[in-house]
Design brief:
This protein is an alpha/beta fold and about 425 residues long. About 40% of the residues lie in helices and about 15% in strands. It folds into two domains: about 220 residues, 3-Layer(aba) Sandwich (D-Maltodextrin-Binding Protein, domain 2), CATH 3.40.190; about 200 residues, 3-Layer(aba) Sandwich (D-Maltodextrin-Binding Protein, domain 2).
Length: about 425
């Protein structure tokens, strides 16, 4: 993608677009450097770090920051944890007004809003100063941060959707292997048969597969199945017009719809995660971020594997938390180096972040004994090799919101899969102006 050459011009343009996007923020951190790229003797370079984390993610990130601050004699990190719902609006405002933090969390899916506008700093020259080796990262995850062969952020993880299952219900249905993994044929018919066996054996109030009847979850599941098909995954054509209404997408969506219409996914589910926690669901397809909460539920004997493969190749939906250096009117080299040093440290210590359920981006972390000793995480870590991100479009968030509205009508039984795709395709072009 072509980069706009002038930061101030991009800032002015973005200021007029703040109403188009949303999701953490605060104010810039203090500095102890001398203003000329150096630091006074005995002082630390203090960097401000914005995150959108709360709950378990927030606790684990705070613990990592505390550990870094204790270990590092030259850098101090000051975190501002923000509400996720308005994080990106505040971040855009801060960049446009030249009040951006020194380091920020930036989802891969949000990078199309920031990179082409010149709002984040390319990192290749800075990377050599802190011995940041791009070859140490999972290539699929890393690719989500590369534009025009330039690296624009340090990937911390991928958080993909995976399949959780209650071992007791699967065992009763005869679909749990001796290795503790589910048994099903890798085909649409095979996975449906797997769920039907569970339905026949489980109590009537137990969902064979728990998925919400609202929000984005079924869209994630569709995206995974759609990308499993040969020639699947098309969203836009070369001109940017919607191309979601195609035979492969219809095949995947008709299968998702069949799970609802057959009752294998019971109707009117709001909180599918709680249903699984309460042992009222046998299978749940959701994000890796649920691992930490499930393992703390007394008496919940569960397992987790990558998203079920039912078509030609493995694929699943996912996104990544990455670490980016926002642009400033005048850059401070000492702060930039300190921020990237900390970003590298976070990625290198990914086993701490994996406690939240996320899959670390640095491949050597996956081989570490600390990661291997954690339950469940290794069982789905391979998902990082076939995670499929949303297309790169600066309006993709709005596009997804409008597509989900059509999916919700399908889940409510108000329209079939074919009509859903037709309307979704039209909504995409209306949103993008094509």
């Amino acid at each position: 993608m072509r980069q706009r050459p002038k930061f101030k011009m991009a800032a002015l343009l973005l200021t007029t677009m703040l109403g188009l996007s949303a999701c953490a923020a605060g104010g810039p951190g203090t500095t102890t450097n001398t203003g000329d790229g150096g630091t006074a003797a005995g002082e630390k370079t203090t960097i401000s770090f914005w995150t959108p984390f709360s709950g378990g993610d927030g606790e684990f990130m705070t613990a990592m920051i505390d550990k870094f601050n204790q270990e590092n004699s030259e850098i101090r990190v000051e975190q501002l944890a923000n509400k996720a719902e308005d994080y990106y609006t505040k971040l855009q405002t801060a960049i446009a007004s030249d009040q951006a933090p020194d380091l920020t969390v930036l989802h891969s899916a949000r990078m199309p809003q920031f990179v082409p506008a010149g709002f984040v700093t390319p990192l290749d020259e800075l990377a050599s100063e802190v011995q940041l080796d791009w070859g140490e990262f999972n290539p699929t995850i890393l690719d989500s941060t590369v534009y025009d062969e330039k690296h624009y952020s340090v990937p911390l993880d991928t958080h993909a959707i995976v399949m959780y299952y209650n071992k007791d219900y699967l065992k009763d249905a005869g679909v749990l292997g001796d290795d503790g993994n589910p048994i099903y044929d890798k085909s649409p018919e095979g996975f449906t048969e797997f769920l039907n066996k569970i339905k026949a054996a489980a109590p009537k109030d137990v969902a064979p597969l728990a998925q919400p009847s609202v929000r984005i979850d079924s869209y994630w599941m569709f995206w995974g199945f759609y990308n499993q098909l040969k020639d699947g995954g098309k969203f836009y054509d070369e001109s940017g017009k919607a191309e979601l209404n195609n035979p492969q997408a219809l095949q995947a969506l008709e299968y998702v719809d069949s799970l609802y219409t057959s009752g294998l996914i019971p109707p009117k589910i709001d909180d599918a995660v709680k249903l699984f926690q309460d042992k009222r669901a046998a299978v749940l397809i959701t994000g890796v971020w649920s691992t930490g909460s499930f393992e703390n539920i007394d008496g919940l004997d569960f397992g987790v594997v990558p998203m079920p493969q039912i078509y030609d190749q493995p694929a699943t939906w996912g996104d990544s938390h990455t670490l980016a250096l926002p642009k400033h009117g005048k850059e401070d080299p000492a702060k930039q180096k300190a921020a990237l040093t900390f970003a590298k440290w976070l990625a290198d210590n990914g086993e701490m972040w994996a406690k939240a359920g996320h899959i670390p981006s640095v491949t050597k972390v996956l081989d570490s004994q600390a990661f291997k000793d954690m339950p469940y995480r290794s069982d789905y870590a391979e998902s990082a090799n076939f995670v499929k991100y949303w297309p790169r479009n600066d309006k993709q968030g709005q596009v997804n919101d409008n597509v989900v509205k059509e999916f919700e009508k399908m889940m409510a039984g108000k329209q079939d899969a074919k009509t859903t795709l037709e309307k979704a395709n039209a909504a995409i072009d209306k949103t993008t102006g094509k």
